[in-house]
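User: Predict the structure for this protein chain, please.
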Amino acid sequence: MFDDGGVEERRVRRSDEPRKALGLFLDVARKRLGVHALSVSTPGGWLVAGAGDGAILVAALAVNVDAGLCKSAEVSISKLEVGREEYVVAALGRTKGLVAVSDGVRRILS
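Assistant: Here is the predicted structure, written as structure tokens:
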């Protein structure tokens, strides 16, 4: 999904710090997917990392969408577990490819 020749950029923009690496990954994923914002948050809505304008808002909305308190055609979520921790990956905008983003998040946080 993300293998479009951006290997050199990925090699230059790396970090050994998981939170920073996650932010870099989300920024690249947001641009490639063409979405306005991506967020990774806890199920309680605490932002772990985000990219794009409104990432904090997307994380907060994702909690409500996940709980069934509201429906949104603009916010999509993907839930994942890494070890004993649960995370919610959310996108504002086109949502195809969110599973691939979740897979990348899992790799970084593992």
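Residues 1-12 have pLDDT under 50 and may be disordered.
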